Amino acid sequence: MALSKGRKSNPEGRMALKEHLREFRNRLFKSGIAVVLGTVGGFFLYLPVFDALTKPLIDAGNSDGRFTTINFEGVATPFDQMIQVSLFIGLLVSSPVWLYQAWAFVTPGLKRKERRAALGFLSAAVPLFIGGVYLAWLILPNAVRVLTEFTPEGGSNVITASVYLAFVLRLMLAFGVAFLIPVFLVGLNLAGLLSGRTIIKYWRITVFLICLFAAMAAPGADALSMFYLAAPLLALFALAVGICLINDRRRVRRQAAREAAVEADADTATPVDKL
Questions:
Q1: Is residue 10 part of a domain?
Q2: Residue 207: in which H helix or E strand, if any?
Q3: In this structure, are residues 109 and 13 in contact, taking their beta carbons and an 8 Å threshold?
Q4: pLDDT tops 50 at residue 5
Q5: Is there a contact between 224 and 275 (Cβ–Cβ < 8 Å)?
Q6: Where are the transmembrane segments (predicted)?
Q7: How far apart are CA 134 and CA 172, in angstroms?
Q8: What confidence score (pLDDT) does residue 1 get?
Q9: How many domains would you assign to the chain?
Q10: Which of 75, 106, 132, 260 has a beta carbon 3.0–4.6 Å from 179's, enabling a disulfide?
Q11: Is 12 strand, coil or helix?
Q12: Run of H or E including 69
């Protein structure tokens, strides 16, 4: 899309398809560089992060008197897991960059005031994403404890490292991405692609999908884990709907004001002007 230097000559951000693709490539390249740099930094944090991620599993086994440990089944498995955890750290650390690049690709299609308001709401995207990851971290010990309690008496939990870490990282990413849903709803509304009334019209389906997602993403067999994810998502959804409705009213008022101004100009025009 349009570069910043072309804003004055092209305020609406109109571009040909080839230029759109070039802009998308540039944004994707910048995001990739940020993730790579964050991943390199993640290598230095791998050991303490790995210890923190596996601690809930070890503690769950020790509290029940069962033998619980992490098993690296292959020669290259420790290195593979280091790559995965470091990449997750890179995604988390670089989230301000790739979220901004994603939004910068959309904003040229918005008007100046809408871009300013949207940028303010986008500033909440980073803490929302990190907050979702942190919430997943808070429920992880309880989820691991509940799931490992199904182990029969006398059994042991020798958990494969690749399986356990994939489970934990997917959980955290699912929570983080889920918390970004309100940002995308507001973004679509500001772009004129989705109205607040449309969202309200299908609120039953939306609530059902949120609860279904919470049930699938929350690993715990208890309803509490699902509630931890569904409750903040529903609250954020309600906030997003409110912002969309307010923006819809402002858009209607602006449109009415423009139409009134056009009619006023037409009424005050002289017969010569009309000719």
A1: yes
A2: helix 203-217
A3: yes
A4: no
A5: no
A6: 28-47, 82-106, 118-139, 159-190, 202-221, 227-246
A7: 8
A8: 42
A9: 1
A10: 132
A11: coil
A12: strand 68-71
List the structure tokens of 203.
């609120």
Helix (H) or strand (E) holding 70: strand 68-71
Instruction: Return the closest-CA partner of residue 126 out of 169, 104, 97.
Output: 97
User: 81 is written with which tokens?
Assistant: 């897991």
> Is 189 within 8 Å of 200 (Cβ atoms)?
no
Flag whether 271 is in a domain.
Answer: no
Provide, rounded to the nearest whole percent, the portion of the chain with pLDDT above 90.
Answer: 2
Domain-embedded: residue 265: no
Contacts of 126 (CB under 8 A, 6+ apart): 95, 96, 99
Q: Is 220 a member of any domain?
A: yes
Calculate mean pLDDT across residues 212-237.
72
Q: 71: helix, coil or strand?
A: strand
Does the pTM of the predicted model rise above 0.70?
Answer: no
Concatenated DSSP letters for 128-174?
Answer: HHHHHHHHHHHHHHHHHHHHHTTSPTT--EEEEHHHHHHHHHHHHHH
Q: Which of helix, strand or coil describes residue 49?
A: helix
- Residue 180 CB burial class (10 angstroms; 0-12, 13-18, ≥19): buried
Q: Is 110 left (phi over 0), alpha (psi -120 to 50) or beta?
A: beta
Query: What's the domain range around 210?
Result: 4-259
The proportion of the chain whose per-residue pLDDT surpasses 70, expressed as a percent, equals 77
Q: Which helix (H) or strand (E) holds 158?
A: strand 157-160
Q: Give the model's pLDDT for residue 37.
A: 92
- Indicate the burial class of 19 (C-beta count within 10 angstroms; 0-12, 13-18, 19 or more): middle
